[in-house]
Amino acid sequence: MNKLGKIFIGLGSSLLIFSVFLIIFYKYEDKKASIASKEILTLIEENLDKELEENQINNLVTNINNQTTPQIKAININGNDYIGTISIPKLNLTLPLNNEFNYDDLKLAPCIYYGSILTNDLIICGHSYKAHFKYLNTLSQSDIIIITDTNNIHYLYEVLEVEVLESNDVLEMIDNDFDLTLYTCTPDSTRRITVRCNRIYE
User: Fold this and answer.
1) What's the N-to-C CA distance of the chain in angstroms?
2) 3-200, superfamily in CATH?
3) For the segment 177-195, what is each residue's pLDDT rounded down to a tens digit?
4) pTM exceeding the 0.90 threshold for the entire prediction
5) Nearest to residue 136, comparing CAs of 198, 194, 189?
């Protein structure tokens, strides 16, 4: 075998080993994310208010009438603020919802990227871990998404469309007429699977 052939075999072996390492690392991170999410979810559910007191309702109405940005109280867990949970019944998935976007915090739970539940412009980003948003692309029109805040109030949303955006389409992600947007990376991390939803008022 000539020298060039040996070089190519060496490179191929190195790439194969690196690929195996990446797969193992991804599975490890995925498992870690699953465990962390479950632990946080348990703590959130233990702290949920069972009833929303009348003065809290009045405060919410006052904020909306005064056109100020309404706030939902957060539960602080290990230095991170969580405002409730997000459930996707079709995916048999319930996860904590982090109040602030941070790349490190994404390893624990989906994060609010932009907007608010109460102003109907909420955008939530999640990792493409199996334990998080990996299967967003399987959602379809009329699927239901439920957000439960820390006052134990449920906000129901209906999926209207699923689209794929380029990674730099920040304006297209934010500038929309939908009440809720969920997004995650495609498997190659070059684009964003984007789920658009509107609120169901009962």
Assistant:
1) 74
2) Sortase (2.40.260.10)
3) 999 999 999 988 899 999 9
4) no
5) 194
